[in-house]
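Budget justification aside, the reviewers requested a transparent look at the raw inputs and outputs of the sequence design task funded under Objective 1. We therefore reproduce one unedited record. The lines immediately below are the structure tokens for a 395-residue chain.
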């Protein structure tokens, strides 16, 4: 559910920076008109470069019923854009000597995982990070990772919630991947041996984050706070709902306009990041700095190259690749048109985060409705996304 498979054509849009320049005030006015005419409850956008955030703004409502505006500080879940944080965390763990990208996962896991069609062939961390491990999301089991956000859970203190999330992630993965698990089935794996075919896998992504927990001794939430959020001053980002910030969160809506019941995700690293347009803009600007070889508190230049560079050899790519996305970094998608980034989709939430290596400009879009469920909303998003290209590339 975390990927905009239905919107693949959308991201074959013109490259950033090719449209006629529009001043920020004019851009805000044009986006406001589009927002008013759209069915989007609310959304936030940011345009960034390696120098920082060039433009950011919120439109519409985070909460329609309460008439709460959607701002650049509105917090909401962003779906699979979260996976790019697993990518950064994996390369940080490699720098720390916890493992290499080609380490077999069974050298780290406390339980063995074997592909039923190729039990003697190891699954590696790199394969998890490029969706070529052979682990797939069996829908009947994966949908159980979405659970209602209960008042009992929300009442726990921060340490208790982090400990619970860590236990739940470990339990879900063991039950799904270990032959002794209650939800284990051969159908949890594709017919293709590891490394031979591309199959997008949320559970494979969550497993990569779990490996970081095992080797670092920290929860993934704590690891990313320490090595990503704090260095970048992403003060409004985290993985677990915080009751003290209840008035900061957007309400998730169905395309019909009906609010959704709040939920949490047991496999939270694969799509459960709660963040803001501003924080995501800070993050993407830092990625651009690292991609340009500039000093970064996140990773070394070598690690940025390893994370963002194409992982598939042109002469022998894995089967089943989307022709509009013919290569992959480490949890970063590489589009045919040159853009690098990720999309995200969850019930009542959509996000897009991409940058153009040629122009050094990136864009962020977050909204509190699922676009892939509605063709009209998809077209409205497309107009907004393309309009962001008109901002001048320099402050």
């Amino acid at each position: 559910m975390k990927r905009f498979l239905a919107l693949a054509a959308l991201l074959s849009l013109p490259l950033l920076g090719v449209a006629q320049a529009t001043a920020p005030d004019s851009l805000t006015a044009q986006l406001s008109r589009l927002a008013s005419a759209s069915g989007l409850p609310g959304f936030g956008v940011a345009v960034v470069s390696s120098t920082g955030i060039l433009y950011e703004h919120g439109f519409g409502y985070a909460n329609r019923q309460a008439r709460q505006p959607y701002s650049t500080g509105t917090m909401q879940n962003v779906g699979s854009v979260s996976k790019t944080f697993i990518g950064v965390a994996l390369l940080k763990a490699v720098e720390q000597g916890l493992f290499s990208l080609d380490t077999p996962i069974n050298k780290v896991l406390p339980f063995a995982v074997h592909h039923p069609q190729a039990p003697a062939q190891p699954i590696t961390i790199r394969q998890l990070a490029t969706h070529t491990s052979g682990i797939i999301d069996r829908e009947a089991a994966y949908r159980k990772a979405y659970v209602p956000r209960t008042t009992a859970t929300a009442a726990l203190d921060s340490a208790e919630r982090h400990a619970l999330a860590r236990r739940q992630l470990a339990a879900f993965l063991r039950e799904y991947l270990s032959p002794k698990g209650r939800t284990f089935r051969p159908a949890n794996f594709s017919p293709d041996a590891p490394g031979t075919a591309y199959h997008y896998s949320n559970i494979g992504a969550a497993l990569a984050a779990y490996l970081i927990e095992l080797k670092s001794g920290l929860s993934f939430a704590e690891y990313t706070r320490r090595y990503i959020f704090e260095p970048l001053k992403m003060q409004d980002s985290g993985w677990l709902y915080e009751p003290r910030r209840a008035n900061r969160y957007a309400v998730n809506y169905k395309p019909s306009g009906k609010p959704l019941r709040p939920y949490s995700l047991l496999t939270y690293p694969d799509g459960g990041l709660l963040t803001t347009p501003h924080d995501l803009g800070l993050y993407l600007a830092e990625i651009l700095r690292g991609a340009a070889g500039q000093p970064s508190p996140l990773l070394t230049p070598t690690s940025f190259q390893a994370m963002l560079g194409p992982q598939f050899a042109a002469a022998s790519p894995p089967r089943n690749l989307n022709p509009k996305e013919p290569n992959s970094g480490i949890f970063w998608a590489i589009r045919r048109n040159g853009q690098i980034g990720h999309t995200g989709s969850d019930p009542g939430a959509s996000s897009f985060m991409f940058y153009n290596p040629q122009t050094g400009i990136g864009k962020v879009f977050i909204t509190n409705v699922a676009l892939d469920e509605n063709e009209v909303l998809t077209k409205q998003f497309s107009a907004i996304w393309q309009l962001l290209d008109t901002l001048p590339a320099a402050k």
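Residues 13-19 have pLDDT under 50 and may be disordered. The longest strand covers residues 52-63. Computational costs for records of this kind are itemized in the attached budget.
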